[in-house]
Amino acid sequence: MSRLTEGRTLRLTYLRHELRHRWWQALATAAGLAVGVALVITVSAAASGTQAAQSRVLDSLDHAASSNAAAATVAGAVTTASGLAADLGAWVAVAALVASFTVAALLTLASVTRRVREFGTLKALGWSTRRVTAQVLSETAVVGVAGTLAGVALGYAGTALVSVLGPSLTVNVAGFAGATPSSNGPPKALGPDGPIAVHFSAPISPGIVALAVGLGILGTLLAGALGAWRAARLSPASALSRVG
Amino acid sequence: MYTLTGVTRTYRKGSQTVTALAGVDAVIADREWLAIQGPTGHGKTTLLQLLGGLDRPSSGTILFDGKNLGQMNEAEACRVRATSIGFIFQTFNLIPTLPADVNVELALAPLGLDADERRTRVARALGVVGLADRARHLPSELSGGQQQRVAIARALVKEPAVLLADEPTGNLDETTRDETITLLAELVRDRGLTLVIVTHDSAVAARAQRIGQMRDGRLLFDGAGAFGGDGIGHGQP
């Protein structure tokens, strides 16, 4: 009995045992969430990188465009391509977000639904609806925070990978005095007919990270709250009569 | 302990109304051991749930210690369950991920006791049912009889006035059944508990002081089962 709950609340003891014995369910939920958050961060960063590359190419072409029709055409094409990439990136990010939160929410709901009879037992023991809901939410919060933080780490890793593997773009414009854009200062002239070289990198926006973290945790808590509400609104008698 | 007057319970099932209880009148005295028998689907479990404040009657009154349990809101009924009523289920209903001692301790969560008091009470309750050495075992590591004894410890640990048992021996073999019923009989005797037990098993019912028969949603007492059949020395309530 020495290991009972001394120094800890019963809720934490319950939580610890639940996570230990249902770790694979928690892991599946956290992993789904992590993939979604990571995709949001990586895709957003890649889209930002595409736009940055566009800006650098356009800066290089800018002074040639007025006297060179080919440069003007390239500038237009780059703008279009960059716009398409950014739009696509935004949609992929939104889709990743929706898909991952849906998966996390469904897994959370499935977990809670499987435990309706358990919650009925707790209510028979005199646990209030609020106490049962708080128990479910505390479990969901741990999974949500863990999954979201893992997603942030994965997102940073994915973005670093994109930057490493990202292609160096070169643009050749006949008759154009090429330049190598750099992140600091104006493009460096390479001489007549030289290529424009742009290294692709994917910068991470702190705002996107904050958004992904916020949505990740909020989404999981909402799913947990919905699941807990569904479980708690059942009368104890109904919950106890559920098979399983 | 209980006074039931004209208690009915009906359910909507699609477009039909199902009558589970059709007007139950009964008095269950303090320290009484009442067994309820009857065919499946005649309202035994519904009655037990109403006695436990897990459900509310469609009409009629259920006085529990002078208070109308049937009119209580969920928060009030929850408080009564937390302090005064212990449940024992056929399928034990232990939380599978929690060891025996934490399962028992769950019943103390609503009472606001400190950890030392909880620990003392849990140890005492597991000792009473003879499972002090199984406190850290998960339900899956215990036999059916041991699981039911953990469930009895969980029902007892709050020191309730009433134990409500729904087929508590339904999943046990004959020997374990007898041990479990003997344990319940001792608890009724030693702690002055009121015990209402729903059972199909006539051997279990015969140990009770009084047997009621549920037929078509009505509770009938015909004198069968005799009083004091458990040999624990109670008279007729």
Q: Could you list some keywords that capture this structure?
A:
heterodimer, A: 244 residues, mainly alpha, two-stranded antiparallel sheet, two-stranded antiparallel ribbon, 4 strands, 74% helix, 6% strand, disordered N terminus, B: 237 residues, alpha/beta, Rossmann fold, six-stranded mixed beta sheet, 7 helices, 31% helix, globular, disordered C terminus
Q: What integer value in Å does the Rg of chain B equal?
A: 17 Å
CATH class placement of the domain at 33-45 and 80-221 in chain B: Alpha Beta
Q: Unreliable stretches of chain A, pLDDT < 50, 5 or more residues?
A: 1-7, 177-192
The share of residues in extended strands of chain A comes to 5-15%
Q: Widest sheet of chain B: strand order?
A: 6-7-8-3-9-10
Largest interface: A-B, 32 and 40 residues
Radius of gyration of chain A: 26 Å
Name the beta content range of chain B. Answer: 25-35%
Q: Which strand order spans the largest sheet of chain A, edge to edge or round the barrel?
A: 1-4
Structure description:
The complex is a heterodimer of chains A (244) and B (237). Chain A has 244 residues and is mainly α. Chain A has one domain. Chain A has helices spanning 10-21, 23-65, 69-114, 116-124, 129-165, 206-233, 236-241; strands at 168-171, 178-180, 188-191, 196-199. In chain A, the strands form two sheets. In chain A, strands 1-4 form a two-stranded antiparallel sheet. In chain A, strands 2-3 form a two-stranded antiparallel sheet. In chain A, strand 2 (178-180) and strand 3 form a beta hairpin. In chain A, helix 2 crosses helix 5 (129-165). Chain B has 237 residues and is an alpha/beta fold. Chain B has a domain at 33-45 and 80-221: P-loop containing nucleotide triphosphate hydrolases (Rossmann fold). Chain B has helices at 44-51, 74-84, 100-105, 115-128, 144-156, 174-191, 202-205, and strands at residues 2-13, 16-28, 33-37, 59-64, 67-68, 85-88, 162-166, 194-198, 210-215, 218-221. In chain B, the strands form two sheets. In chain B, strands 6-7-8-3-9-10 form a six-stranded mixed β-sheet. A four-stranded antiparallel β-sheet of chain B has the order 2-1-4-5, with helices on one face. Chain B is globular and about 50 Å long. Chain A binds chain B through residues 1, 3-8, 10-11, 13-14, 17-18, 20-22, 117-118, 121-129, 131, 235-237, 240, and chain B through 49, 52, 54-55, 74-75, 78-83, 87, 89, 93, 95-99, 101-102, 105-111, 115-116, 118-119, 122-123, 135-136, 138, 154, 158.
